[in-house]
Amino acid sequence: MHEEALESRTVNCPYCDTPFELLVDLSQGSHATWEDCPQCCAPIQLRIEVSPVSGELVSLDLGRDDDVL
Predict the structure, then answer these.
(1) Entry's InterPro entries (predicted)?
(2) Cα separations (Å) of 42 from 15, 25, 37, 56?
(3) For the chain, how many structural domains are there in total?
(4) Stated pTM of the model
């Protein structure tokens, strides 16, 4: 992981709606992963889409553990 490939985004938990800072590692390319909410500890699905050409974040989708992303 390279620090220059980290992008910070403010997102809201899909469970408790608490805003928090999420660091997205763009060096991994497009991928899906999980992150726990720092407030309520619920598991949040993340779908991260990164442009293969520019390496920039195209989209970031968050969902509950039973959502289909």
Answers:
(1) zinc_ribbon_bacterial
(2) 7, 21, 5, 28
(3) 1
(4) 0.84
> Which residue from 31, 33, 36, 9 is spatially nearest to 22, judged by alpha carbons?
9
Reported residue count of the chain is: 69
3-state SS, residue 27: helix
- Tell me whether residue 59 is in a domain: yes
Question: Over the chain (69 residues), what is each successive 10-residue block's mean pLDDT?
Answer: 79 97 95 96 97 95 90
d(C-alpha 58, C-alpha 46), whole Å:
13
Which pLDDT value is given to residue 15?
97
Q: Considering the domain boundaries, does residue 69 fall inside one?
A: no
Sign of CA dihedral 69, 33, 4, 8: positive
